């Protein structure tokens, strides 16, 4: 088969998914992608594209053809005046940030990690935080896709705009994404202020705090009464002379703080907690106390993202903004009542209403609650119990994280569900790009 490479087992970043595809291909360009699709159709095989494997839900695993997009990378074109960039689908968010920096540009908002690919990230509705700033998908203004029928289909805000809305959160079922065009902004810096504060008072004024900041997020370590808040403010474009005094800790010091206190410590706590589950509560208190308040200024993409050396599993839900505080209180009570031992903090973020048909934040201001657990510790019972709370508050699952919802209960919470399914059926009538999980969540 075209572009075939040695087919070894595939593992997700979180370590919770493994697959052994019958064929793995790594096409170099669009023509090779089209050939792969043609050959798969002829052989009656299904095809699942894969990005960086950063999803926890089984979107990628297949026993058919895994289409590795890691050779489809780099800049296709940039228009500095119109502040638009087109990159190949397998470009990572990190590579994209560096490309944009060279052209004096940046993305307006980013997720907290930069290792996912651009096509993979938009597939699942990857978001950052901030009520006034779009997720990755809403910064997309054009997509080109290779379809199993051998066509390259394009869409933009003026050409097939309904397909653009579907492609903004595509789940890898509309076609193999070849290129993505994004609207950018001028490069900017962020001032970050991180504090420890009582979690109860913070949750009481959550909506106000979220709407009062450019980018607001907080995390809470179970077993403690303290929240760690992070407020990021977009700086005006002044020369370096003006902005330098706003950065009282250097980047080197912050990275040491991140590596030693915030990640190694939680890795250590996770490992010790896996060996001595009863110690988790006490360890969490130590970990929470070790994280200090700090302020710093940095280039936007460096402030938005951090490295994630400790692997974990996650379940995240998008809630109507006003339901976020009540849902958080119920989750906190659940953890405290049932004594679930979580070795990672719960993380709360927010986003504006989104355009993508299947965006979990579609059509409403959204609060995101993210639950994480060290990979070797039990998570299923807690994630299930938490999901009931999320569902009761109108939550929609993040497509890339763990959940148990199926099409039957998801369809009614997406106003444009049928439009998405109609476009999928038009572009891939024989379901070549469907896998077991996508069939289940889409009901096709
Ligand atoms: C450490 C870490 C931090 C994270 N932080 C955030 C965060 O801050 N915010 C957030 O919302 N999410 C976050 N996530 C989740 C992550 O962004 C999503 O799961 C994302 O989809 C992963 O992208 P990927 O490149 O790894 O794609 P994969 O997980 O490999 O694939 C995801 C989907 O994309 C499809 N796909 C990939 N490439 C193509 C292509 N070229 N054409 C068609 N389909 C394609 C796949 O078929 C699959 O359906 C995080 C995950 C991790 C592990």
Automatic annotation (TrEMBL):
Molecular-function GO term, any one: FAD binding
Domain FAD-binding PCMH-type: 17-187
Pfam families named in the record: ALO (PF04030), FAD_binding_4 (PF01565)
Alphabetically ordered keywords of this record: Oxidoreductase
PROSITE patterns membership: FAD_PCMH (PS51387)
UniProt KW S-adenosyl-L-methionine keyword: no
Entry-linked InterPro entries: ALO_C, FAD-bd_PCMH, FAD-bd_PCMH-like_sf, FAD-bd_PCMH_sub1, FAD-bd_PCMH_sub2, FAD_lactone_oxidase-like, Oxid_FAD_bind_N, Vanillyl_alc_oxidase_C-sub2
GO CC terms: membrane
UniProt-recorded name of the protein: FAD-linked oxidoreductase
């Amino acid at each position: 088969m075209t572009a075939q490479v040695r087919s070894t087992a595939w593992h997700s970043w979180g370590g919770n998914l493994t697959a052994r595809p019958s064929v793995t291909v790594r096409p170099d360009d669009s023509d090779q992608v089209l050939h792969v699709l043609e050959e798969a159709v002829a052989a009656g095989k299904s095809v699942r594209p894969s990005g960086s494997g950063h999803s926890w839900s089984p979107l990628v695993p297949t026993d058919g053809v895994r289409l590795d997009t890691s050779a489809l990378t780099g800049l296709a074109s940039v228009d500095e005046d119109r502040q638009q960039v087109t990159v190949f689908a397998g470009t990572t968010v990190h590579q994209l940030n560096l490309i944009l920096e060279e052209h004096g540009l940046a993305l307006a908002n980013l997720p907290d990690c930069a290792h996912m690919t651009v096509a993979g990230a938009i597939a699942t509705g990857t978001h950052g935080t901030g009520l006034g700033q779009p997720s990755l998908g809403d910064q997309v203004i054009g997509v080109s896709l290779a379809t199993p029928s051998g066509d390259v289909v394009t869409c933009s805000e003026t050409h097939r705009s309904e397909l653009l809305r579907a492609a903004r959160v595509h789940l890898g079922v509309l076609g193999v994404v070849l290129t993505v065009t994004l609207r950018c902004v001028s490069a900017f810096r962020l001032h970050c202020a991180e504090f420890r504060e009582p979690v109860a008072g913070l949750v009481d004024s959550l909506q106000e705090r979220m709407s009062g900041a450019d980018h607001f997020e907080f995390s809470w370590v179970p077993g403690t009464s303290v929240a760690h808040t992070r407020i990021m403010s977009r700086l005006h474009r002044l020369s370096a002379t003006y902005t330098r005094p706003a950065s009282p800790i250097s980047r080197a010091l912050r990275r040491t703080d991140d590596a030693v206190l915030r990640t190694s410590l939680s890795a250590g706590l996770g490992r010790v907690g896996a060996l001595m589950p009863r110690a988790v509560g006490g360890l969490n208190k130590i970990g929470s106390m070790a994280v200090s308040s700090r302020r710093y200024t940095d280039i936007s993409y460096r402030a938005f993202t951090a490295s994630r050396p400790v692997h974990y599993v996650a379940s995240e839900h998008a809630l109507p903004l006003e339901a976020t505080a009540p849902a958080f209180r119920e989750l906190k009570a659940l953890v405290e009542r049932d004594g679930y031992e979580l070795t990672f903090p719960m993380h709360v973020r927010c986003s504006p209403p989104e355009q993508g048909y299947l965006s979990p934040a579609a059509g409403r201001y959204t609060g995101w609650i993210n639950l994480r657990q060290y990979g070797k510790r039990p998570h299923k019972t807690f994630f299930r119990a938490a999901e009931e709370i999320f569902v009761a508050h109108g939550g929609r699952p993040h497509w890339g994280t763990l959940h148990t919802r199926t099409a039957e209960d998801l369809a009614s919470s997406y106003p444009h569900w049928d439009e998405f399914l109609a476009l999928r059926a038009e572009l891939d009538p024989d379901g070549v790009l469907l896998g077991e999980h996508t069939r289940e969540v889409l009901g096709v």
